[in-house]
Amino acid sequence: MGKRSLPPPPSHVSLAASLGNDGIIMVLFETPSGFAIFSFDGVRLLLPDAMENIWANFGRKYRAKCVVWRKEFQFFEDKSADINPVTGVSKELSAMLMKWCCPGYKLAVAKNEYKTIIEASLGIPCLCDDAMMEVMWGLKNIMHSLVPEEKSELSKEERLQMSQGLQMLLNRYGVDVKPEMVSDRIIGLACVLYDCDGNEKH
User: Fold this and answer.
1) Does residue 154 carry a pLDDT above 80?
2) Are 40 and 50 in contact (CB under 8 A)?
3) Backbone angles phi, psi at 7, to 5 degrees
4) Closest Cα partner for 106 from 32, 43, 31?
5) Across-strand partners of 70?
6) What pTM, to 2 d.p., does this model score?
7) Which PANTHER family has this protein been placed in (predicted)?
8) 83: which residues sit within 8 A by CB, 6+ positions away?
9) Would you put residue 64 in left (φ > 0), alpha (ψ -120 to 50) or beta?
10) Which of 11, 20, 54, 78 is the most buried (most CB within 10 A)?
11) How far apart are the C-alpha atoms of 144 and 115, rounded to whole Å?
12) Which residues, at least 6 apart from 140, have a Cβ–Cβ distance to it below 8 Å?
């Protein structure tokens, strides 16, 4: 008997249909002083090589402009009270989320706790997985270009922690970089290596 052929990988169209809204999802991004809402090409989360590729979309500012689009940013005085397991989602944050998360849209969040609270309080379906954490890593990496109103700084651990995709690339090239060693320069060099990989594949 001949080998059974593998089914073709899902197409961009079918993946977009599984997410709805042409594959666009909303992202709730927490900054030191508030929350921002972005729209994002969610199909990238579902591609077979998502974990290897997502980080590179945020390695440099110009790359991110092709995949993520800012919708709104607001300052919040006490964020712990705005998403709370006891009180739910505050009136102000609820209004912000409901403004952009129209029926059928999925919302990506950085914490499973936020997913549970928002789904229970507002009925908005949320995404929170490893691929989405790559997006959050990227948003943190270029936060000030996306949210220039935010004047506070993320800690080095928050901003430049190693993403899984970046780690995969460095390991493939035999580059030993500890998470605490990651810098903007290393990310830039990794983007060059990533592009070289892409050229070789094509």
Assistant:
1) yes
2) no
3) -65, 150
4) 43
5) 38
6) 0.89
7) NUCLEOLAR PROTEIN 5 NUCLEOLAR PROTEIN NOP5 NOP58, OS02G0511800 PROTEIN
8) 89, 90, 93, 113, 114, 117, 118
9) alpha
10) 54
11) 25
12) 154, 158, 159
Buried b (16+ CB within 10 A) or exposed e, 26-45: bbbbbbebbbbbbbbbbbbb
CA–CA distance, 43 with 18 (Å, rounded to integer) = 9
pLDDT at 158: 76
Please return the burial class of 11, using the count of CB atoms within 10 Å of its CB with bins 0-12, 13-18 and 19+: exposed
* H or E segment and range at residue 106: none
Look at the chain and count its residues.
Answer: 202
What integer is the mean pLDDT of 32-55? 94
Q: Which of 5, 62, 3, 68 is nearest to 42 (CA)?
A: 68
Q: What is the pLDDT of residues 159-192, one digit of tens each?
A: 768 999 999 999 998 989 988 888 889 999 999 9
For the beta carbon of residue 58, count every other beta carbon within 10 angstroms: 25
Read off the amino acid at residue 108: A
Alpha carbon distances (Å) from 196 to 52, 64, 190, 191:
14, 19, 10, 9
Contact partners, residue 134, CB within 8 Å, separation at least 6: 50, 51, 54, 55, 163, 164, 165
